[in-house]
C-alpha cells in the first residue's frame, strides 16, 4: 500500500512539475536563491556562499538537504552579536559543484580556499548535522586557521543512512514538486509539520506550532528543501561519505570545542556528541534536554547564550 501511495503521489507530482505555472515558479525560485548568495572563485573551484554581520568570522557548515540557505537559517539566529557569519554551499549543493571536494577532508580544504578568496586569515567553524565531518576535518587539517570548533547535532563518526534514504518517505522527499510545496502546506496546516525533522514529542510539537518565532525557524529550515534537484548530488555524496568515514584522530583537535546536541535526536543519535566530547581534549558537551534534531529552532533560549559566549570568547581575530 505504501508503494502504491508513493507511485500515486509521484505521478501527481509529475503532472504538476510539467505545468507552465510551476516551471515559471521554479525559475523565480532559482533566481531568488542566486540573488541571495555570492560566488567565490577559489584555488579549488567555485564556492557559493552568503554572509551576514561584522566581526570575527564563523563558517556555518550546513547539513544534508541544505545549501548556503540552510546555513543562513542558523547564522541569522546568531546575527547582531559582533560576528561575521559565513554560510557556504558544500560541494554538490546548489551552485557549488561536487568536483570542488567530495570527501570531508577535501571539503575542509575548500573552506580554507574560500577563506583565502575572502582574505580572511582565521575563522571558527560550526558543523551542523552532516556538516560535522567537514568541520572536524577543518579543525584537524587547518588548525592554524581554526579559532574554534562547534558541533551542532553533528555527525562525528561512520553511520549508515542508506536504509533510511530508501524508505518510501525519503523517496517522496526526493520528489521535487512535493518538497517545493511542503513549506506552503505546513504554513497553512501546521499539523503537517514533519515529525522526523522537528518534533516527535507531541508536547514539543504543540509548543513549536504555538510559538510564532520558533515555528518560523522550523519553516525556514523546511524551505531549504526546495529545489531538490540542485541538492541531490550533495545528499547522495554525504550518505556515501558518512557510510565510510575513517576513524578520525580526534585527540589531535587542538582548538576550543563546544558540542551541542539534543538528547532526543532520532536523526543523528546523541552518542555522536558523546564521541567527540570524550576524545577531543577539553571539549565541552552541552546536552539539550529533550531537544531533537532541530533543537536550534526549538530550544534557542537554552543553547544560544552559551554558544554566543563561546564564539565571542575565542582568541584571535578574523583578519
Summarize the structure.
This protein has 319 residues and is an alpha/beta fold. The protein has helices at residues 2-17, 20-35, 68-78, 104-117, 132-141, 162-165, 168-173, 176-188, 202-210, 212-223, 232-243, 271-279, 295-298, 300-313, and strands at residues 38-42, 45-52, 57-61, 84-88, 123-128, 146-152, 257-262, 284-288.
Q: Could you characterize the architecture of this molecule?
A:
The chain has 319 residues and is of the alpha/beta class. It has a domain at 38-167 and 231-311: 3-Layer(aba) Sandwich (Rossmann fold). The protein has 14 helices and eight strands. It has helices at 2-17, 20-35, 68-78, 104-117, 132-141, 162-165, 168-173, 176-188, 202-210, 212-223, 232-243, 271-279, 295-298, 300-313; strands at 38-42, 45-52, 57-61, 84-88, 123-128, 146-152, 257-262, 284-288. Strands 1-2-4-3-5-6-7-8 form an eight-stranded mixed beta sheet, sandwiched between helices. Helix 4 (104-117) crosses helix 5. The relative contact order is 0.15. The model is unreliable at 1-15 (pLDDT under 50).
Low-confidence runs: 1-15
**What's the architecture of the domain at 38-167 and 231-311, going by CATH?**
3-Layer(aba) Sandwich
Helix content: 40-55%
CATH fold node name of the domain at 38-167 and 231-311: Rossmann fold
Specify the structural class: alpha/beta
State the name of the first-level CATH class of the domain at 38-167 and 231-311: Alpha Beta
Largest sheet: 8 strands, mixed
Q: What's the helix-strand series?
A: HHEEEHEHEHEHHHHHHEHEHH
- Strand portion, in percent? 5-15%
Q: For the CA atoms, what is the radius of gyration?
A: 19 Å
Helical stretch count? 14
Mean pLDDT: 88
Shape: globular
Number of strands: 8
Q: How is the largest sheet built, in terms of strand order?
A: 1-2-4-3-5-6-7-8
Q: Note the gap between the termini.
A: 58 Å
What is the name of the CATH superfamily of the domain at 38-167 and 231-311? Alpha/Beta hydrolase fold, catalytic domain
Amino acid at each position: 500500500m505504501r508503494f502504491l501511495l508513493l507511485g500515486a503521489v509521484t505521478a501527481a507530482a509529475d503532472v504538476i512539475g510539467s505545468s507552465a505555472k510551476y516551471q515559471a515558479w521554479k525559475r523565480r525560485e532559482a533566481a531568488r536563491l542566486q540573488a541571495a548568495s555570492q560566488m567565490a572563485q577559489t584555488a579549488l573551484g567555485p564556492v557559493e556562499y552568503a554572509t551576514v554581520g561584522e566581526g570575527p568570522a564563523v563558517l556555518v557548515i550546513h547539513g544534508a538537504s541544505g545549501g548556503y540557505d540552510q546555513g543562513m537559517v542558523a547564522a541569522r539566529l546568531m546575527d547582531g552579536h559582533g560576528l561575521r557569519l559565513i554560510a557556504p554551499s558544500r560541494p554538490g549543493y546548489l551552485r557549488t559543484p561536487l568536483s570542488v571536494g567530495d570527501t570531508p577532508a577535501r571539503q575542509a580544504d575548500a573552506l580554507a580556499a574560500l577563506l583565502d578568496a575572502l582574505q580572511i586569515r582565521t575563522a571558527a567553524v560550526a558543523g551542523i548535522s552532516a556538516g560535522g565531518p567537514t568541520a572536524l576535518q577543518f579543525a584537524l587539517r587547518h588548525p592554524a586557521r581554526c579559532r574554534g570548533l562547534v558541533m551542532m547535532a553533528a555527525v562525528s563518526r561512520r553511520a549508515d543512512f542508506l536504509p533510511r534514504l530508501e524508505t518510501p518517505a525519503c523517496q517522496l522527499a526526493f520528489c521535487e514538486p512535493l518538497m517545493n510545496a511542503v513549506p506552503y502546506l505546513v504554513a497553512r496546516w501546521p499539523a503537517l509539520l514533519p515529525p522526523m525533522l522537528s518534533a516527535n514529542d507531541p508536547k514539543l510539537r504543540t509548543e513549536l506550532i504555538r510559538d510564532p518565532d520558533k515555528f518560523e525557524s522550523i519553516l525556514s529550515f523546511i524551505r531549504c528543501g526546495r529545489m531538490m534537484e540542485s541538492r541531490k548530488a550533495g545528499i547522495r555524496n554525504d550518505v556515501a561519505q558518512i557510510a565510510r568515514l575513517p576513524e578520525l584522530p580526534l585527540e589531535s583537535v587542538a582548538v576550543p570545542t563546544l558540542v551541542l546536541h539534543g538528547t532526543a535526536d532520532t536523526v543523528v543519535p546523541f552518542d555522536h556528541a558523546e564521541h567527540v566530547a570524550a576524545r577531543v581534549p577539553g571539549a565541552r558537551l552541552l546536552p539539550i534536554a529533550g531537544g531533537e534534531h532541530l533543537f536550534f529552532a526549538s530550544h534557542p533560549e537554552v543553547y544560544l547564550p552559551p554558544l554566543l559566549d563561546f564564539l565571542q570568547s575565542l582568541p584571535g581575530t578574523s583578519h
